[in-house]
Structures are given as structure tokens and as C-alpha cells.
Amino acid sequence: MPEKDVILHVEDLKMHFPIKRGVIQRTVGYVHAVDGITFDIYRGETLGLVGESGCGKTTAGRTILQLYKPTAGQIVFEGKDLVKLKNEEMRQIRRKIQMIFQDPYASLNPRMTVEEIISEPLLVHNIENGKEIHDHVRSLLELVGLNPAYVDRYPHEFSGGQRQRIGVARSLALKPDLIVCDEPISALDVSIQAQVVNLLEDLQKEFGLTYLFIAHDLSMVRHISTRVIVMYLGVFVEMADRKTLYENPMHPYSIALLSAVPIPDPKVEEKRKRIILEGDVPSPINPPSGCRFRTRCPLAQAICAEERPEWKEVEPGHYVACHFWYNTKSLQRR
Amino acid sequence: MAELYSIKDLETQFHTREGTVHAVNGVSLSLQEGETLGIVGESGCGKSVSMLSTLRLIPQPPGEIVAGEAIFQGRDLLKLSREELRHVRGAQIGFVFQDPMTSFNPVHTIGKQLMEPLEIHLGMNKKQAWDRAIEMLKMVRIPNPEDRLKDYPHQFSGGMRQRAMIAMALSCSPQVLIADEPTTALDVTIQAQIMDLVLSLRKELGMSIIWITHDLGVVAGIADRVIVMYAGYIVEEARVKDLYAKPEHPYTLGLLRSLPRLDMDEKKRLASIEGVPPVLFKKPKFCPFASRCSFRIEKCLDENPSLMLVGENHKAACWVDTYTGKER
Ligand SMILES: Nc1ncnc2c1ncn2[C@@H]1O[C@H](COP(=O)(O)OP(=O)(O)OP(=O)(O)O)[C@@H](O)[C@H]1O
Ligand SMILES: Nc1ncnc2c1ncn2[C@@H]1O[C@H](COP(=O)(O)OP(=O)(O)OP(=O)(O)O)[C@@H](O)[C@H]1O
Ligand code: SF4
Ligand code: SF4
Ligand SMILES: [Mg+2]
Ligand SMILES: [Mg+2]
């Protein structure tokens, strides 16, 4: 296999949000939203990032884009650590990494027209003149399957799916290499989701884009991803290529998560056994010691409370963080 | 099986500043004893409003129940006095609302809210109601129920609130449970907990369930029979296995094809349904799915098809046989 071309390398990234209380806003603790994650993204791939609400997916995405200043860690893009870059250099690189946001209703400014929304990044980076911008916006609209005649409309005049297309058009304006897609379809109806996913796939082929695709719909992630990461309470628990992760998951949490996804086929559902996890996800303010999943893990042992399991490459390209990764097969009784 | 609950030709509209929204346009269904009926369809198609209407739980005005009957135990719920209806709602038909925050009052403890219907409808005293409330929280697997009853709704996590709401809906042992997207806002592992819980309670208590959702996977695992809604109409109705094995309405067919499946390793392009659902300001004179339908024939634009029998216990509202492409 040829060497993979790493477009982004993230090393032990942490993002802790301070919790402030009282009149003098003293810091009384931290939300450990992202607590030491390490991974690469390869050029041209779609890396899926899944996990339950509050596990830190959005925070990871936003920190990579430098929308937050990380507590610790490195984010290396094109050989440069973004955390250490000075403003001007950062501005140059920021063009190449864009984000599509979770909520198509909240992420577009309601007082701006479509043309203003899409051209904003072009103006900020001052790279085109008026006429060029005008034509560029039209061609972007066409690209995402919207009528260019809509340039003067406002966001509320569009459906959810159309708004998400506007968000996609804006993220493409600066010809980025990497797009962080934060749940781009979660807020959309089932019949519209496929339209947006197909669009993202078409654009990827046409422009060789790389995606970090954040989602909690595991079926859609299986469809769109090259590789997949499973996250739990601020840390990664498993990472593998898509086929391996779905057919041979090793972390107890991944196994339980996959078993819980309903499959739209009554014949399959009849025979399936779900692993019902006890309890709720603990708070990221005081996450459990050792393995973060131990409070809900059916296989937990004493050591799981004492030592944080190592992020271990158990097969080429397959990473698992579990003390008993070699012995989790008993959970897979589909 | 005996019929327990039936809805006939229900029509509900909302009179808004922009015009009249035709939210429910003639919905008829029947629920059998011990049966779980799934209702699916995308956002705004009228799932919640149709079920809320039958218990007169929509705001009137702007809402108006224009026509229809909702027959439960031989009586039309739409004609009952407020007092009689309140008793049916509290004791015989349990409702789990789409948004858990709307059904709990934030200023009262969970315990107070669980005990109230028991005292009103079952005539329990404080002590009896307290014990029963503890039993109910245990039943929905909330740990330390004695302490938890003293909590306020915001002290519960989303999943716990949803479970407490199911406990409240079931506390007077209703014959019918109507659950409006009870798991949509929850994570899949919590969703699995709740589906597991409801399925085991159904066995234990022998009740009938109407389960509203937009998730075709959830319905596959929980329902005996399924109703598909679109633009305020029922467009298909079938036993769950028949619906998935041989969907008859182009909309159902499109939905099932557009879903990627967790258990299949396919990299092929998703089949999407182009276009968007219609706005409901006018009652359509022709098929409401016509603008998005690839099977459309001329007749579809002349006349709105009503539900017709297309197989054994299988109904669809469509002029075209999607398997032959010919007019029915
Ligand atoms: N700006 C912030 N300040 C303080 N805490 C935050 C902030 N943003 C996120 N958090 C907390 O960090 C944790 C991770 O949140 P994040 O939004 O990254 O989760 P997520 O995985 O994207 O969840 P979802 O699937 O619901 O979008 C949560 O506990 C959240 O409450
Ligand atoms: N109070 C109201 N005033 C005006 N229109 C309303 C009101 N409540 C509902 N509607 C309209 O009635 C239609 C049906 O709404 P309903 O809530 O039944 O949809 P639903 O199928 O339950 O959707 P969802 O999956 O989003 O819950 C929608 O077009 C909605 O906008
Ligand atoms: S390390 Fe222990 S608690 Fe954590 S997933 Fe593995 S077995 Fe479970
Ligand atoms: S009646 Fe015609 S337009 Fe409507 S769903 Fe059937 S084929 Fe399509
Ligand atoms: Mg998020
Ligand atoms: Mg609803």
C-alpha cells in the first residue's frame, strides 16, 4: 500500500472549559470536553466521528478549527502547528479548513441575503473583486443544486435541506482542502438527508475534498466514511477502517452502540439481541477514573477503575482503548 | 382481536395569520387489543396533531377539529364533557409527549406530579400514592426512587425524564399508551433502554400502544402494524413485515431506499427523494406527493387518491401499481 498522505495530525489534544461561580467568577472546576485525543486525517478520505450527545464531537471539531484555544496538544496542518501560528499565517491557513455547522436554522445569519452569506468569506480574505464574487456565488449555488436566481433571498425563505446547501456553498467558497462537517444532516428530514449526503459525496469526488464527518447516526456514517472513530466522554475508544469497525468492533462501548441501532427491517429486528447498557453517561466535569466507560461496561474489572487503558494499535490501523480488548468477543452475540 | 380504539375521518386545521393550515385531512385508523401500531412520516406531516386532536389536546384556537370521531369504549371522545375526558386522559389513555419538558411542571417535584393523577383518578390517599409512585419509578428502572421523587424535573437527565414520563403515563394502568416520539431526542443506547422497557411493560400489562416516530428502524423493531403519513393524509397502512417487504406507496418506497443500513456494507449512491413536502395552506385537489413522484401519471394531477386495498390487510393511497408501473 502506498504511504498515506496525512493532511492533518492531531496530538494529545485537550479542551477543558472552566466552570466559573460566584461574584468574582472563580474557577471551581473544568468540563473535560476533549481530554487527550490523537489521530491523523488522510487526504481525500472521509473520517467519521461518532459518539453520543455531549461526548465532545463538536468541541473536537471546533478546536481543530481554532475556534477555541486548546488547553493542550498539537494540531499539525501542512507541517505547521496551528496552535503556535501568528495571526497572518493563521489567516492564510484558515482558508483551507472550513466547517459546516450542526444546525442549518441557527448557523445562517437571518439578516443577510444568500449572496452576502456565501460571499462573506471571500470578502474577509479579500481575494476577489465585486464582479468576480458575484459570478462565483452564482456558480457555487449551481454547484450545490440551488437556483442562482435565489441570491437575493433570505435564509427563512428556504427549507432545511436548502439551507444546509447554502452552508455547504459557503464552506466551499474558499476552495478548502479539509471540511469539518458537524452533523450536517441531523436536523433534516429523512427524505432530505440523502440529497445532502449525495451532494457531499459528489463534491468530494469533483474537488478531492477531505471530510471529518461528525454524526451520531451510525448507519449514515457507515455509508459515507472511509474510517471511523468512536468517542466516549471526551476520549477516543476505538478507530478502524469502516468495514472493520462495523463488522469486527472490539471496544465494549462500540459493540453496545452498534447493537442499539435499529435496523429498518422487521425480519432482522426480530432476531437481534441488543446490549442494554445500564445507567446514563457520567458528567464530563468529574469523569470516572481509569476507563471512562467502566460505570456502564458489562466487562469492567478492578483494574478498569485504576488505570486508564492505553490507546493501542491491535491490528494495523485498528486502535482500541480497553484493558481487555482481546476478550470482548463474548459481547458480540448478534 | 377486538377493536379498542378507533378514529374516523379526522380533520384538523390551524387558523393562522398566514392562512389555514390543513394539518390533518381525513385520518381513519383502528387499534386492536394488545396491538402496537406505529405511525411514521416526516416532520410536519400531522402525526402529533392527529393523536393530540383525538384527546382534544391541541390549542383551540388557533386549532380546530373540523370533522371526525374518536371512539373509545363505545363513546366519542370528541363529544365528551371536559370532566369525562379528563378521566379518560388520566386513567385510560396514557400519553407520552414529544417534548418531556412540556409535560412536567418545572416548579413541582417529580413525586408530586406522579402522585396527583393517582389521587384524583384512583382515589388513593397520600401514602398509597407515594408507594405506587416509588413502584412506578422502579418499574422504569430509575435507581433510588425514594430520593428521586423529591427531585425537580431539571435534576433528571433527558433519558430519566423520558422514563419518568412513561411512568406517569402508565401509573393508572391505562388500556392504551400513545407515545409521541418518546425516544427521538435520546441517544441510541438510551433509546434501546426505553424500547426494551416499553416492550416488556406491554407484555406485563397487556396494553395497546400507538408509537409515533420518524425512524423507520424503531418501527421495524416495535410495531405490529404501521401507518405512513404524508401531508396530513395516511398514504399507506400494512402489517409491519408487509410494509418493509413490499412497500406499495411511492413515498414509502422512496423512504426505505434512501436509508443506509447498518447491517449492509454498501457504498452505492443513496436513492434520494427530490424536492420537499408541500406546504399545507391549501387542501390539495390532486395527489400531495405528485410533485416528487417518479411514478406519476396524468390521473395523479386530476384526482387525489384515497386509501384503497392493495393486498391482504394492506392499503395504499396511490393510482399506480409501483411494481408494474400500470394504473391500478
Ligand atoms: N463553550 C462551552 N463551555 C462550557 N462547556 C461546554 C462548551 N461547549 C461544550 N461544552 C460541554 O462540553 C461537552 C462536550 O460538548 P460537545 O458539544 O462537544 O458534545 P457533542 O459530542 O458535539 O454533542 P452533541 O451530539 O449533542 O452535539 C458537553 O458536556 C458540553 O456541555
Ligand atoms: N399550534 C399550531 N399552530 C399552527 N400550526 C400548527 C400548530 N401545531 C401544529 N401545526 C401545524 O400542523 C402540521 C402538523 O404538525 P404535527 O405537529 O402534527 O407534525 P408531526 O408530524 O408531529 O411532525 P414532527 O415529526 O416534527 O413532530 C404542521 O404543518 C404544523 O406546522
Ligand atoms: S477498560 Fe475495562 S471498563 Fe473500560 S471498556 Fe475495557 S473492560 Fe470495560
Ligand atoms: S397517486 Fe400518482 S403521484 Fe401520487 S404517489 Fe401515486 S403515482 Fe405518485
Ligand atoms: Mg455536537
Ligand atoms: Mg410531532
Essential attributes:
heterodimer, A: 334 residues, 8-stranded mixed sheet, 24% strand, B: 328 residues, alpha/beta, 12 strands, globular, binds adenosine-5'-triphosphate, binds iron/sulfur cluster, binds magnesium ion
Dominant shape of chain A: globular
Instruction: Give start-end ranges of low-pLDDT stretches of chain B.
Output: none
Largest interface: A-B, 46 and 48 residues
Average predicted local confidence, pLDDT of chain A: 90
CA-to-CA gap between the ends of chain A? 33 Å
Describe the sheet with the most strands of chain B. 8 strands, mixed
**Overall radius of gyration of chain B:** 21 Å
Strand content of chain B: 15-25%
The shape of chain B is globular
**Cross-sheet strand order for the largest sheet of chain A:** 6-7-8-3-9-10-12-11
Which ligands appear in the coordinates? adenosine-5'-triphosphate, iron/sulfur cluster, magnesium ion
- Let me know the average pLDDT of chain B: 90
Distance between the termini of chain B: 31 Å
Which structural category fits the helices and strands of chain B?
alpha/beta
Fraction of helical residues of chain A: 25-40%
Give the helix tally of chain B: 11
**Largest sheet descriptor of chain A:** 8 strands, mixed
